[in-house]
From TrEMBL:
SUPFAM superfamilies in alphabetical order: S-adenosyl-L-methionine-dependent methyltransferases
GN (gene name): trmR
Taxonomic lineage from the root: Bacteria, Bacillati, Bacillota, Bacilli, Bacillales
InterPro entries noted in UniProt: Cation-dep_OMT, SAM-dependent_MTases_sf, SAM_O-MeTrfase, TrmR_methyltr
The protein's name in its UniProt record: tRNA 5-hydroxyuridine methyltransferase
A biological process term (GO) from this entry: tRNA methylation
Amino acid sequence: MSISDAYIQSFIPARDELLMEMEQFALNNHVPIMQLPAIENLLQILRIHNPKSILEVGSAIGYSAIRMAKALPEVKIVTIERDEERINNARTFIARSDVKENIVLVEGDALEVDIKSNYPSFDAVFIDAAKGQYQKFFDLYSPLVSSGGVLYIDNMYMHGLSDLEMSEVPRRKRTMIRNLHKFADWVIQNADYDSTFFPVGDGLLICKKR
């Protein structure tokens, strides 16, 4: 028996005016942000994990960074974004938030920027950027997470495409979906991590480093 959307929504707490404005902005401008049930699950897990430092790969408009900073008042978040328009929007929204002192926005390609020089380690990494590059992001940033740290990876469903036969996937998306499948198979079998898939939102993969 499936759980109704209305019932799921009943567990989602109210958000402040800024967050509601950001959600509407994302909807109107087709900016991908985490679905509400998924981010509420993520935030609750983060409260239990209680990381003091988080690296976010893929800021978009800063929504997830602000949500995480509000849930974890003592956290320091470094978030990376390469799209100029999204950087400008993220900078504006973060500046208007009451957690701006907890967030550092880094401009540039997450595969090219030098994070380690200024931030040699993190308690957690949240990956929510180019889906076909997840393996590269993981390889690059997982060494910055110490034993017991956690990597959180969103969009593993890829809007339902990951669950289709490859012949059903649009041709322009097939390489990305193949890469996503390879990454999922690799990380689940990786003995250095305890990995679990949460079927919430667009699919959340959580990998705890041993």
